Task: structure prediction
Amino acid sequence: MRLNINLASQPYEDSRKFWLRWGPALGLAGLVTLALMIAAILSWRDARKDQNQIASFEKQIAACERERSNAQEVLDRPENRSTRDQSQFINDLIRRKSFSWTQVFSDLERIMPPQIHVTSIHPELKDNQLTLKLSVASQSRERAIELVRKMEQSPRFSRPSILDESSQQAQNNADTARFEIGAVYLPQAEAAKPSGSGAKTAARATSAEGGAL
Result:
């Protein structure tokens, strides 16, 4: 048998050597491509699922907003204003009863830094939230900043910040810096039983502040 091979027009190629060298790399690239395609498909499916869920939540929110608007419209009618005012008054009373001087001072005692003391506390209802305004005195601003940081770490206080500060001349090592700190107070569902030290502190606060909201 005679084979006519023209090496000039058909050069010899070692295919086996080529596949041994580049076959694993091509196979790995194919696997990576397949994995990326699967990940892209799964991400697209999850994105569609999230979009559908968001759309469902938006519909529920819109429905609740319509119900709230309808209820508010009914309450704003002249014949229902007395019922609305009475409902708001009762809700305010419930929020006020949830405030405990003993619990507030017990919470403050756990986070109060040294060399700083509270001079007054003003609780008030604002935007359906129970807020506290603390007037504190110290010899340095760092103590007030430390108190704000500890209030941020406490679950009982939300969004604390220094509202105002002032200073005065030192007399007999007295506190020269005074600060007003505001925060939202989050009372417990059930008021804690007053302890001995907490009751004494609450009594001092009540006598200084007037003892009522």
The chain has five helices and four strands.
